[in-house]
Write a structure and sequence with these properties.
Length: 354
């Protein structure tokens, strides 16, 4: 059998499991058509509720963009409303008035069901679906909480490209993996721009969820938002130059693994080291210093980090050099150069590179 699954039996087993999950999720989310959209665009950010404050540095970078056509920023949390999230919302609205922030939360029932499922991709799907449902504009940009935009006309340029292209989905690159090939011309979800009016007219929220099926004779496991692209709508890939943004990727998913396992063995591309730095960008100076000291004092064996333990045997010098390059680029953008607190933290991280 071609594609992701080598045997029909394995494909059928996963498809049955996913179908059962989809039946549970179907009543979790609905939306209405967007018949009279407002002009401009919306930004949707899926945010891990545990790291709400980590968004502060991200939002400060967004404030440097050309926001003349922005309607609002919709922040979607993967949990119900709490006193802490309400406090964050008040502070964010005060500091970032120009962003016209709207915060969206899971209901208590949604949170209870999703915690029982315990799969991060379900939260990702629901957050993006809620954000798209809350949009008042046709154009929506999906923005990662760990992505920092450096070029100040980046969003405005991509919005204009989206309008001129006639596409319904515009990503930074074509998706490859899980049985999907580059030639399929399906867009990767990161920093995607999409036509919410088209999406809400042609599809229901569950259509955005991960979907196991056959596609062009291959077995595939469609990631979030790939299935609608495969069925209908034009797609366009507009690459982002690496110098125009900093995006370590998988930061939150790796943290989830860290917290759920007695000792987590991160892959070579261990991006958990970005979290104390991103919190530092949000004015939390304590966490960076605490983790610097912890790393400097750590001996052999698993390292205590962010309330968990991780085995750094896979952490390479090559990836550490990449981390340092990304931090240097972001430090130049936010502070005009590398600050001493950040430099010594990186030196502590570098001790574990193999």
């Amino acid at each position: 059998m071609q594609g992701k699954y080598s045997s029909y039996g394995k494909f059928l087993a996963v498809r049955i499991q996913r179908t059962a999950l989809r039946l549970v999720l179907r009543p979790m989310m609905r939306w209405s058509r967007l018949d009279e959209p407002r002009p401009g665009y919306s930004i949707v950010i899926a945010c891990h509720a545990h790291f709400a404050r980590m968004l502060i540095g991200n939002l400060r970078q967004l404030m440097k963009q050309d926001l003349s056509e922005l309607d609002r920023v919709i922040i979607c949390f993967d949990g119900p409303k709490t006193d802490e999230l309400e406090r964050f919302e008040r502070e964010a609205k005060d500091e970032f008035e120009k962003l016209n922030i709207l915060c969206v939360h899971q209901s208590s029932i949604q949170s209870m069901v999703l915690r029982r499922i315990g799969w991060g991709w379900v939260d990702c799907w629901l957050s993006y679906a809620k954000g798209i449902a809350a949009s008042r504009t046709r154009w929506v940009m999906l923005h990662d909480m760990d992505a920092f935009l450096l070029r100040e006309d980046l969003i405005a340029t991509r919005l204009e490209q989206m309008k001129q292209s006639g596409a319904h989905f515009m990503g930074i690159r074509w998706y490859e993996g899980n049985g999907v090939e580059r030639e399929d011309r399906l867009c990767y979800i990161v920093e995607m721009m999409l036509d919410a009016q088209f999406l809400r007219r042609r599809f229901v929220p569950l259509d955005l969820f991960n979907h196991v099926c056959r596609y062009k004779g291959r077995s595939v496991d469609f990631d979030t938002l790939l299935y609608p692209q495969s069925v209908a709508g034009g797609t366009k890939a507009m690459p982002l130059e690496m110098t125009n943004w900093v995006h370590p990727s998988q930061v939150i998913s790796q943290f989830t693994y860290l917290k759920s396992r007695p000792v987590y063995v991160p892959p070579e591309s261990n991006n958990l080291f970005f979290i104390p730095y991103f919190m530092y960008l949000a004015d939390d100076r304590t966490i960076l210093e605490e983790h610097r000291q912890s790393l400097e004092n750590a001996g052999k064996g698993p390292v205590e980090f962010l309330g968990g333990k991780m085995d750094l045997s896979q952490f390479t010098r090559t990836h550490f050099d990449w981390i340092r390059q990304q931090v240097e680029r972001l430090e130049e953008a936010v502070a005009g150069g590398m600050r001493n607190e950040v430099r010594v933290y990186l030196e502590a991280v570098g001790r574990f590179a193999n």
